[in-house]
C-alpha cells in the first residue's frame, strides 16, 4: 500500500513513513473503542427509559414517577447500578486472560476474541427476557471490553511511527467518543419506539462488533508480537510493510534486542515489582485511577438520568446528552491534532484546571438551586449543560485519550503486556466502583458529589505537573533511557536496575 505521508528523518528516528497500511489498521483496531464507547453511552439512556425500567426495575419506575420523590434519590437502586457496572466486573477478570493471550497468541487474535465476546453479549442483551439474562449479556460485553482495551492500544502503539504514535493511538479514544455520541442518538430515536425501543438500543452494539470482527482479518500482526513469538522473518516483512521503506534494519535490531531481553524475563508480573519497573507501573495505573475519578463516567453513564434530575423531560435529557456527546467527539479531534505537537503534560495540566472550574461551578449551582423536590430554574439548567460541555471538552482532549495512550507507550517490552494489564484492570476496577456507587453517592452527597470530584482533579493535576515525564516523540523501546532515567524524581529508581 503506498505511503500517504512521510516525515523527515532525524538522527534519533527510525526511517519510516506514515503508510496507508498503518492508518487503516489503526482505524480498524480502534473500532474496539467504538464498541466500548457505544456501551458507555447506551446504558445511561436505556436506564432512563420507562419501558426498560418497568420490565426489569419496577420499583425504580414507580419511584421515578412519584411527584414528591427526592430529586437526588430517584434512581438509587443497587441492581440498576449493577446493570451498568457488571460489564466492568467481567472486564477486570478478562484483562488478565487478555494480557496472556496478547503475549502468547498475538494482538490480532486478541482483538478478534473481543469482537466475538461483544457479539454474544449484544444478542443476549437485545433478547433479554429477565434480569439474569440481561446481566449475563453485560458480563459477555465486559469480556469484550477486557480483551479489546488490552489489545487495541498496544496494537496501535506498536505499529505507529514514534512521531505519530500519539495521534494514531488517540483514534481509539476518538472512536470511544463517537460510540458514545451514536449511543445517545440511538437512545433519542428509540425512546419513541414503545415498548421495545430499548432492545434496538442494546442491539445496536452489534454493528461495531461485526465491523471489528470482519476488519480484524485485514489487519497485520505487529512486528513486535511476531518477533516476540519467534517469527523473525515475518516480523521484518511486517515492519517493512507498515513503515513503507525497505531499510528497517535499525528498528528491527532494536525490537529484536528488546525481545531477547524480554525473553529472559520468565515472570513479567513479578518483574513489575523490580525497582526499575515501579515508575511505569505507578504512573500507568494511577493515570487510570485519575481518569475515572475526574467524574467523567458520571456524565457519560448517567447523563440522561442527571439531566432528568435537574428537571429536564425525558426527550430533553436525551437531547442534552447528544449535545455533550458531540462536544466529546469534536474535542477529541483537538487531542489528535495536538498531542504530538504540544505533548502529553501540557494537555493534562490545562484540562485539570478547566475541569476543576466546571465541576466547582456546577456543584455550586446545584447546591443553591436544586433541592429535594423542586425543579431547577431553566436558565440555570441550561448553564449547567454548558458547564458540563466545558468539562467534557477538557477531558476529551486530555485525560480521556491520554489515560490510554501513556500506559500503552511507557512500559519496556519485557513487562509491556503485564504492565498494561495492570493499567487496564485498574481502569475497569475504578469504572466499576463509580458505576456501582454513583447513584447512591448522588442520593447521599447530593450536589457535594461535584466537589468530591473537584478535589480529585486537584490531586491529579498536581501529579501530572510534578511526576509525569514527557513521552512525546520518543520511540517506544527507548522510553526508559530518554524519559524515565532523565526525570528529576524517577531517575533514582534506575541507579541499580537489579534492585528488588
UniProtKB/TrEMBL annotation:
Source species, domain of life: Eukaryota
UniProt xrefs under CDD domains: MFS_STP
Entry keywords, A to Z: Membrane, Sugar transport, Symport, Transmembrane, Transmembrane helix, Transport
Limits of the Major facilitator superfamily (MFS) profile domain: 25-472
One Pfam family named in its UniProt record: Sugar_tr
Membrane topology classification: Multi-pass membrane protein
Main localization category: membrane
Record PROSITE patterns: MFS, SUGAR_TRANSPORT_1
Subcellular location per the Swiss-Prot or TrEMBL entry: Membrane
Gene Ontology molecular function, alphabetical: monosaccharide transmembrane transporter activity; symporter activity
Membrane-spanning intervals of the chain: 21-40, 79-98, 110-129, 135-156, 168-186, 198-220, 281-305, 317-339, 346-368, 380-406, 418-442, 448-468
Record GO cellular component, one term: membrane
Family classification: Belongs to the major facilitator superfamily. Sugar transporter (TC 2.A.1.1) family.
Name recorded for this polypeptide: Sugar transport protein 8-like
Organismal lineage: Eukaryota, Viridiplantae, Streptophyta, Embryophyta, Tracheophyta
Amino acid at each position: 500500500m503506498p505511503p500517504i505521508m512521510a516525515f523527515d528523518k532525524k538522527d534519533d528516528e527510525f526511517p519510516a513513513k506514515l503508510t496507508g497500511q498503518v492508518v487503516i489498521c489503526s482505524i480498524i483496531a480502534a473500532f474496539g473503542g467504538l464498541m466500548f464507547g457505544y456501551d458507555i453511552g447506551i446504558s445511561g439512556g436505556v436506564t432512563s427509559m420507562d419501558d426498560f425500567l418497568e420490565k426489569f426495575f419496577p420499583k425504580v419506575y414507580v419511584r421515578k414517577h412519584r411527584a414528591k420523590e427526592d430529586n437526588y434519590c430517584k434512581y438509587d437502586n443497587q441492581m440498576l447500578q449493577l446493570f451498568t457496572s457488571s460489564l466492568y466486573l467481567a472486564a477486570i477478570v478478562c484483562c488478565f486472560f487478555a494480557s496472556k493471550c496478547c503475549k502468547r497468541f498475538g494482538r490480532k487474535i486478541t482483538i478478534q476474541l473481543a469482537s466475538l465476546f461483544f457479539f454474544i453479549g449484544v444478542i443476549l442483551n437485545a433478547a433479554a427476557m429477565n434480569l439474569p439474562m440481561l446481566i449475563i449479556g453485560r458480563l459477555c460485553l465486559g469480556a469484550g471490553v477486557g480483551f479489546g482495551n488490552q489489545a487495541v492500544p498496544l496494537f496501535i502503539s506498536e505499529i505507529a511511527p514514534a512521531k505519530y504514535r500519539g495521534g494514531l493511538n488517540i483514534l481509539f479514544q476518538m472512536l470511544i467518543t463517537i460510540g458514545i455520541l451514536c449511543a445517545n442518538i440511538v437512545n433519542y430515536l428509540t425512546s419513541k419506539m414503545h415498548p421495545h425501543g430499548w432492545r434496538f438500543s442494546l442491539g445496536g452494539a452489534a454493528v461495531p462488533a461485526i465491523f471489528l470482527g470482519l476488519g480484524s482479518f485485514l489487519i497485520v500482526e505487529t512486528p513486535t508480537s511476531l518477533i516476540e513469538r519467534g517469527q523473525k522473518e515475518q516480523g521484518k516483512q511486517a515492519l517493512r510493510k507498515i513503515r513503507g521503506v525497505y531499510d528497517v534494519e535499525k528498528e528491527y535490531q532494536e525490537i529484536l534486542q528488546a525481545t531477547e531481553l524480554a525473553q529472559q524475563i520468565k515472570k513479567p508480573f513479578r518483574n513489575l515489582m523490580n525497582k526499575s519497573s515501579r515508575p511505569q507501573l505507578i504512573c500507568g495505573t494511577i493515570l487510570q485511577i485519575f481518569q475515572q475519578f475526574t467524574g467523567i463516567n458520571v456524565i457519560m453513564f448517567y447523563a440522561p438520568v442527571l439531566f432528568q434530575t435537574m428537571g429536564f423531560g425525558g426527550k430533553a435529557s436525551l437531547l442534552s446528552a447528544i449535545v455533550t456527546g458531540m462536544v466529546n467527539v469534536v474535542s477529541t479531534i483537538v487531542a489528535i491534532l495536538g498531542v504530538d505537537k504540544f505533548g502529553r503534560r501540557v494537555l493534562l495540566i490545562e484540562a485539570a484546571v478547566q475541569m476543576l472550574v466546571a465541576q466547582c461551578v456546577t456543584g455550586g449551582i446545584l447546591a443553591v438551586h436544586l433541592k429535594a423536590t423542586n425543579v431547577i430554574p431553566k436558565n440555570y439548567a441550561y448553564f449547567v449543560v454548558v458547564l458540563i460541555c466545558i468539562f467534557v471538552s477538557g477531558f476529551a482532549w486530555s485525560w480521556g485519550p491520554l489515560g490510554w495512550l501513556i500506559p500503552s507507550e511507557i512500559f519496556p517490552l519485557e513487562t509491556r503486556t503485564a504492565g498494561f494489564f495492570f493499567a487496564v484492570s485498574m481502569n475497569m476496577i475504578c469504572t466499576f466502583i463509580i458505576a456501582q456507587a454513583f447513584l447512591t453517592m448522588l442520593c447521599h452527597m447530593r450536589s457535594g458529589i461535584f466537589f468530591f470530584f473537584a478535589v480529585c482533579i486537584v490531586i491529579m493535576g498536581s501529579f501530572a505537573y510534578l511526576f509525569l515525564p514527557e513521552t512525546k516523540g520518543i520511540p517506544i523501546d527507548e522510553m526508559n533511557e530518554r524519559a524515565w532515567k532523565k526525570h528529576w524524581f524517577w531517575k533514582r529508581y534506575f541507579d541499580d536496575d537489579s534492585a528488588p
